[in-house]
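Re: your question about Solute carrier family 2, facilitated glucose transporter member 5

S., sorry for the slow reply, the queue was backed up all week. Below is exactly what I fed in.
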Amino acid sequence: VLHLCLSFQVGAGKALIFIVVLGLGGSFQNGFHLTAISSPSPYIQSFINSSWTDHYGGVPGEKTVTFIWSAVVALYALGGLFGFFFSQKCIFIYCICSSCRKKSMLLNSALAVVATVIMYISKPTNSFELILVARFLLGFGAGLGGNVHIIYLGESSPKKIRGIVTLTAATFLSLGKLSGQFAGLREIFGREEWWNILLCIPAFFCVVQLAILPFFPDAPRYILIEKGNTQQCKRALQSLWGPGDYKLEIEEMLAEQAVIGEEHNKSLLDLLRDKHLRWQILSILVINGCLQFSGISAITVFSFNIFLEAGIPVDKIRYVTLGIGASEVLISITCVSSNVNIMNHPCVFEHHYVINHCHPLPKGDSVIPYSTVVLIFLFIIFYGGGPAGIAPSLANEIFIQSYRPAAFVFTGFPRWLGFTIFGFIFPFLIASLKSLCFVLFSCICLIAALYVFFILPETKGKTLLEISQEFENIRACGSSTEDVMCLETKL
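Result:
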């Protein structure tokens, strides 16, 4: 935020408040719900046990409780998967194409408030089924709002600082994770009698967004390119960023409008059918899929179980997870303030390589638990400083304008689907394999590191057309082109 203020006249307009309000009702919500579910996990499992007994009679088996708990975690991701694709279909078409980005965010906040009410009444009604419904709706809102948040930021920012403004979405995601871990402390809301209140806290920020966001203008880029209103676009820019004629920004939008008029955006099927984009599609799958199964979801959502298995005392676990959240926020803010090019090829490889060696150790003597904590901190630092930034921006780096919307949809598929599968299987993995399950994650990190090093072209300082040409120059073994070496790429 300080870097924003120094880079542009943020204080002259309402941009800073706009970014904060949008962030608190956007990616902050997702971050909070990802981590807040970890702290009360033993209380929720106990509640599932008692609720099952009350509704169906008899005590449920351990595997039954584990399966329902897995569903509580996984339904959030499944809801995110549905919300992500739904945002590209019905709601996306109505609220984004026919109406505005602002209405999409307001709709998302209203949905989160409804889901929060369902979550709150689950405990008084002694119904674990309501928790499942609420988690699905909260995930649906995360998938729906995550798209619009980034689009709204990008289309509301001048070209000069658009990248930095968009990166604030990642910062609010990290702040949401830290807030969820802080609120989960026993001294705050991490008690058995308050777990349902803990999971309802983000609704307060949704109400704040519902109250404040209507007073801000819609995205200037949307106003000009899609509605064709130049004067209203200029007023929106002045309202957000202060006085000025914004001639360069408006000229850029008009040029983009002319390009879009010549070629419409491609569909997801067009993206998948284009044989010239197969390496780009494979890169999206490998990077996002490997990151989802690198172990970061386990550390974020199941941190209580992981540290308990590692031998950390129960009363200290929540403080350790709080430190992890703080380190993630710090590295996220550092990346934003330094405006690092996250697609630097050697940097990405090194971060994947280090992550491969920073997974928890098996339980042993008294030194092992603390060594595990150190390794997990290193894991978070290198994850946040390198690969974490690739997932949301890879499509922008390797796809031309006409394919970007479809690529953006495709990017969310491995992320949310992977999280859904992971949420179901990890409780069973850690119960059967203990700390050895992280050996699997290490292998996946190694695969990602090797792919980035040998296949993914360098993108720093290159145009989209140059990057596309580098992908086309990649040839697998057995290619019919004799003069091209196997897996040729410019490293």
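Residues 267-491 form a domain with the Growth Hormone; Chain: A; fold (CATH 1.20.1250.20). The first helix runs from residue 2 to 7.

Happy to talk it through on Thursday.
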